[in-house]
Amino acid sequence: MSDHIFRMFGASPISPLQQHMSKALACVAELIPFFDAVVNHDLEAMATIQKRIATLENEADVLKKELRLHLPKGMFLPVSRRDLLDVLTIQDSLANQTKDIAGLMLGRKMSLPESMAEKFIAYVHCSVDAAEQAQKAINEFDELLETGFRGNEVRLVKKLIKTLNKIEDDSDSMQVVVRNQLFQIEKDLPPVEVMFIYKIIEKVGEVADTAQRVGSRLQLMLAK
Amino acid sequence: MDYGTTFIVLACVFGFFMAWGIGANDVANAMGTSVGSRAITIKQAIIIATIFELSGAILAGGQVTKTIRKGMLDPSLLANTPELLVYGMLASLLAAGIWLMIASRFGWPVSTTHSIVGAIVGFAAVGIGMDAVNWGKVGTIVMSWVISPVTAGIIAYALFMSVQKLIINTNDPFRNAKRYVPMYIFLVGFIVSLVTMFKGLKHIGLEMTTFECYSLAVIIGLIIMVISNIFIRRIQIDPEADRDFHFANVERVFAVLMMVTACAMAFAHGSNDVANAVGPIAAIVGIVQSGGVVATKTALPIWILILGGIGIVIGLITYGHKVIATVGTSITELTPSRGFAATLAAATTVVFASGTGLPISTTHTLVGAVLGVGLARGIAALNMRVIRTIFMSWVVTLPAGAFLAIIFFFMLKGIFS
């Protein structure tokens, strides 16, 4: 009977989930140097950073698969298994979306009109902020477990999620501004290029959106 | 009784072997969590377990031993054939011992209690007759196997919730931990000593009034509390520890509580499980010494309890340290605050059962307690499949123990008569 009692303790999914989030965030954070390179028309730097992003995305994928193996059916968890796997998938799409953006821009050797640079960089920063805020919330997961998903800690996490929602709102309004800037000058630019810049604007916004979805899933888990 | 001495020697050898097995395997349940949470070293765990297993066996092991020894059988039917009871008890010890060996070889989670109860009921029902079994008592025992994990689960849930309310979900968990943990420690000492004194101490010749029991239990609780408080006072906030995980310092206070609870668990285990090995010895010694009379009123010789206790301790020293080491390094998910709630709930339930003379499974009780904490959303992941196997194993163990006991019974009967 010896160690049977201890075999009943499954490996905690919390720390792997947090590691995965860190990896996804590391990936998203690369967007800042990447867009700096875009603005500076530094193709070489863009290529290096794109490679880094691809590696990070890959590592996140590995972590995702590992965690899924940790969570076979028949695990009794303090949160719903479905929600946990959903959060993981959403976190993972943060990395995927980042990789898409970098891949597309590098592949088409894209650049941004100078007049848009400042606002666009701020817009990218906002998306990265959202991902950072999502990580802050996910990092509270072990404290949530310690408190049995009750009390002050729940309030703290709800506050973090509220801030996350606010950051996403900001990102939405910045998107409007950046889009409008592009609209003003679009007739002077090659039409295909314009189409793709619109596409990139959308994709950068999606990153913030995805970060927000990490938060809302976490919120669902609190109320199991 | 031609073979009187032979029977006693055989009984002691088989019983000692079984006690060794209990010590080698089961003790990790009590001490593994403390080692795992780095509250104590393996060496300290062995020393603590030795002291408390032994005292649990000697001070509180009497009632369950009585049940195993004669509670499950109807002595009036055996009055004319005392040798049958001797064969049966020897067969039961052998059967349970061998079944446990097979089980640990294959890694099945079987319980010593279920093996020995299955064996005794088996040989009596088949070897002697259905009427020889005191079915009412056996029914109560089987019921207690369902009730004990549930009870432990409910207590664990309540303990965990009280810890959340008083300590963890407050604005200053560290200060509240230092304030309330000593009270939990008092509770551990009070409950364990109270139950022991109420039920356990008659066989060592101590008769106490209710008032004396309560006062002594309070005093023991206070002594343990004061000693633990010395350790708790020493714990200072280490800001570095709290950087990643904000409750790291609070858990350090709980580690002291966890230690005290582990002692209680070792005591509870000694009080309940030693009977599985020494109950049959006691039955055989009783018959042989009274010259072949199936006595119902003879006192339990204390040396038999000591023999069982020493068997457990030797099992612990020779083999248990390996188990504790494996278990201690493999679990980090069970923090002291959870480990304490589960262990104390299990220890309390087991000590109560010991006082009432019910042989229950320590392992099942602990599993029930852990599930209780899990239901309070306190544990990151519980493998329900493993839990199901642990609970289902007793369905197999009862007939297996019975079957082996019946075979050995007829073999011994053939050899000696």
In CATH, the topology of chain A is named Methane Monooxygenase Hydroxylase, Chain G, domain 1
Biggest interface goes to: A-B, 34 and 53 residues
Estimate the global geometry of chain B from the Cα principal axes.
Answer: elongated
**What share of residues are in beta strands of chain A?**
under 5%
**Would you tell me the structural class of the helices and strands of chain A?**
mainly alpha
Major sheet of chain A, described briefly? none
Characteristics:
heterodimer; A: 224 residues; mainly alpha; Methane Monooxygenase Hydroxylase, Chain G, domain 1; 80% helix; elongated; B: 417 residues; 15 helices
In short:
With 224 residues, chain A is mainly alpha-helical. Chain A has helices spanning 4-7, 14-29, 31-39, 43-70, 81-107, 117-139, 141-146, 152-185, 191-222; one strand at residues 75-76.
